[in-house]
């Protein structure tokens, strides 16, 4: 089961035939450049290639009126003047004699992808299509879109495959109002869209794109709009939106299928979006979605008009669909005030419909007029606006090209997953492609590292330690992405201790330790700010601090999810560790699927470098972690229970303490008594600059 890539060359035929600057950007090169880059990267070759078919008129009729389909069918026979006249009846649309054929292929590609994934022929996939679809409506073309590819695919999944819950994630920079209208009263489709909004001053200028539109009738709470009121949103803003808005609702919704209206005009350099998210961000967003619906993620291309940025972003998404680790995110992970304000508003608007948002601190909800003056957009067209736009475009071009240089130096590790077992576990059958780690650090070296620990004195523990040391080395030198090691039950704490020291010794400047169960932070490292210690279900820290956080183990799935989305991942993404160590210690009490979910989601912030330590003789747990990390099976959580009031309280309390320092935890703007946004407390972290690390691991320089 692999990743499907659905495409048809004919979709490059339609193009603009007259002078119409607004539509120029929707050009055939969008597809050819993207496909070429996928081939250059060897990604296309790794996919299951499917040739797109045309959607039938009955399939178009799942969403569109027969009259509208007939109008589009009629364009095949029109001359240029007539095409132009008809186009003028819609907003930002152009027709070409091949448009009907192309648009049927685009819808057909989405249908084929959904069929492939729902019949098990593919695990996930991407349909590379044009024209795009998310603006098109039952009886109207709109915003380059002719047929609503994603909406047709969703309706088909309901009717032909009997699905009851479909999540649509629209990360295009424009509001997919077409999808919203089609499903606004339908509780079986949860539609999430973020979009450039600027208080209604950005196309398509709709009141109903704002956060307070939540759906109609039975569909109340199933439309989720996250309007961006400023341009320049970046990686931290997008990840925060996923962790604090989309994912809590998505887990609660428990979709059977995830459709992505995958527009990349929300990426850096795009002339429409003016946003700042870098291509790797889309690998992270994709990975975050893959924990839903058993990994059944079907992406359909929407916008994306900067050819370089589009091609790179698509490659990143396909890499993630194929299961490759995502490169670390660049830039400081602090969401901006305007993003936080939007996040706060949508959480408040949705709270009545979603338990995962209830009993949380909402803070005062700000009316649009409370917007800070710097938040006001410049008026489009004015000289200051044009100047700012030009400067921004130049800045984006520089950022993008230096970023691409860095990405080229950073191939994914040859081994995705390695497992080091002790002799007690050798019977375990691992998924194919997972490496059995046999290599070990030299005996003498291992003994030297083990010396301070009585628990590592016996032979079994020492043998396991040798393998762990070797695995830490392979992960940090880029040979292996993630690893799982088994240790004798009594040796977990000591092995973790040594793994931390080895990581530091090799020059890792930021190490995240997620310790589940009874494990203690090494006392002599208690002040070491290179280590962020996060204890789940262990003892309270004697001296809790920014770098030592303890939280009780949530008892049910709902509680665990709030903990992971609301605390663990924001801390992890904010810390940007070089290595993540997850240790499941004595009495960890974590179910296998929960353990797998935790480890899987921690792949993102660590650039894929995760080492899990578990006690030996837990073959089901090791197997679950290996399958999850290897991309073979997403842990399926099923319908999600509600977090207990104690868990909610504990989290709320912790977040309040930590928020000023770890800004990724924030779900609301911070304001002083006079109502000004608080822009103080930029956190400082140890710089990464060790000669022992490959240069790319050091990541970009931070600016404070
Ligand atoms: C699919 C998409 C954008 C239309 C912009 C019209 N459409 N000004 O990105
Ligand atoms: Zn768009």
TrEMBL record:
Gene Ontology terms describing biological process: epigenetic regulation of gene expression
Organism per entry: Trichechus manatus latirostris (Florida manatee)
Keyword annotations from UniProtKB, A to Z: Hydrolase, Nucleus
Family the entry assigns: Belongs to the histone deacetylase family. HD type 2 subfamily.
Biased composition regions of type Basic and acidic residues, renumbered to the chain: 673-685
One Gene Ontology cellular component annotation held by this UniProt entry: nucleus
Region span, Disordered: 673-704
Major subcellular location class: nucleus
Subcellular location: Nucleus
Name this polypeptide is given: Polyamine deacetylase HDAC10
Keyword Hydrolase found: yes
Gene Ontology MF, one: hydrolase activity
């Amino acid at each position: 089961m692999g990743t499907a890539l659905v495409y048809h060359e004919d979709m490059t035929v339609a193009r603009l035939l007259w002078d119409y600057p607004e539509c120029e950007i929707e050009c055939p090169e969008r597809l050819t450049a993207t496909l070429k880059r996928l081939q250059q990267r060897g990604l296309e070759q790794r996919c299951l290639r499917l040739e797109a078919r045309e959607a039938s008129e009955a399939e178009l009729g799942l969403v569109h009126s027969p009259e509208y389909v007939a109008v589009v069918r009629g364009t095949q026979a029109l001359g240029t003047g007539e095409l132009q006249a008809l186009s003028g009846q819609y907003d930002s649309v152009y027709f070409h004699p091949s448009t009907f054929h192309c648009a049927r292929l685009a819808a057909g590609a989405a249908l084929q992808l959904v069929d492939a994934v729902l019949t098990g022929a593919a695990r996930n996939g991407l349909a590379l299509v044009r024209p795009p679809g998310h603006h098109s409506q039952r009886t109207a073309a709109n915003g380059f879109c002719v047929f609503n590819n994603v909406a047709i695919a969703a309706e088909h999944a309901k009717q032909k495959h009997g699905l009851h819950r479909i999540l649509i994630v629209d990360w295009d920079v424009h509001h997919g109002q077409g999808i919203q209208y089609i499903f606004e009263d339908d509780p079986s489709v949860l539609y999430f869209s973020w979009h450039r909004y600027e208080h209604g001053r950005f196309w398509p200028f709709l009141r109903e794109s704002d956060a307070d539109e939540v759906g109609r009738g039975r569909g109340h709470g199933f439309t989720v709009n996250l309007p961006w009121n400023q341009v320049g949103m970046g990686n931290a803003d997008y990840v925060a939106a996923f962790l604090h808005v989309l994912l809590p609702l998505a887990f609660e919704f428990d979709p059977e299928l995830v459709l992505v209206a995958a527009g990349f005009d929300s990426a850096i350099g795009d002339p429409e979006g003016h946003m700042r998210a870098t291509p790797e961000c889309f690998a992270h967003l994709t990975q975050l979605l893959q924990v839903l619906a058993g990994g059944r993620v079907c992406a359909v291309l929407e916008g994306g008009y900067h050819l370089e940025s589009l091609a790179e972003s698509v490659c990143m998404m396909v890499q993630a669909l194929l299961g490759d680790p995502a490169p670390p995110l660049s830039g400081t992970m602090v969401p901006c005030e305007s993003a936080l304000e939007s996040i706060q508003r949508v959480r408040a608007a949705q709270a009545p419909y979603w338990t995962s948002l209830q009993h949380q601190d909402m803070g005062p909800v700000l009316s649009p007029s409370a917007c800070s003056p710097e938040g006001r957009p410049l008026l489009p067209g004015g000289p200051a606006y044009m100047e700012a736009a030009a400067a921004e475009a130049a800045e984006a071009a520089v950022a993008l090209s230096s970023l691409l240089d860095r990405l080229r130096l950073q191939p994914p590790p040859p081994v995705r997953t390695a497992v080091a077992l002790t002799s007690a576990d050798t019977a375990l059958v691992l998924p194919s492609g997972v490496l059995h780690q046999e290599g070990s650090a030299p005996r003498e070296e291992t003994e030297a590292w083990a010396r301070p620990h009585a628990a590592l004195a016996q032979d079994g523990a020492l043998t396991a330690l040798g393998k762990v040391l070797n695995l830490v080395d392979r992960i940090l030198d880029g040979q292996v992405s993630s690893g799982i090691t088994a240790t004798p039950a009594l040796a977990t704490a000591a092995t973790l201790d040594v793994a931390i020291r080895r990581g530091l010794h090799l020059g890792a400047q930021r190490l995240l330790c997620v310790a589940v169960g009874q494990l203690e932070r090494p006392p002599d490292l208690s002040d070491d700010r290179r280590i962020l210690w996060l204890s789940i279900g262990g003892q309270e820290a004697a001296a809790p601090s920014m770098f030592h956080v303890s939280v009780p183990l949530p008892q049910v799935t709902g509680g665990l999810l709030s903990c992971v989305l609301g605390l663990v991942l924001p801390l992890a993404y904010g810390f940007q560790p070089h290595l993540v160590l997850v240790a499941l210690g004595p009495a960890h009490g974590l179910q296998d699927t929960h353990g797998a979910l935790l480890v899987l989601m921690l792949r993102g912030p660590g650039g894929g470098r995760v080492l899990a330590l578990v006690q030996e003789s837990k073959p089901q747990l090791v197997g679950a972690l290996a399958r999850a990390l290897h991309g073979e099976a997403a842990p399926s959580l099923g319908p999600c229970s509600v977090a207990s009031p104690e868990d909610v309280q504990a989290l709320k309390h912790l977040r309040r303490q930590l928020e000023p320092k770890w800004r990724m935890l924030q779900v609301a703007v911070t304001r002083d008594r006079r109502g000004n946004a608080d822009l103080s407390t930029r956190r400082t972290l140890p710089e990464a600059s060790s000669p022992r690390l490959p240069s790319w691991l050091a990541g970009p320089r931070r600016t404070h």
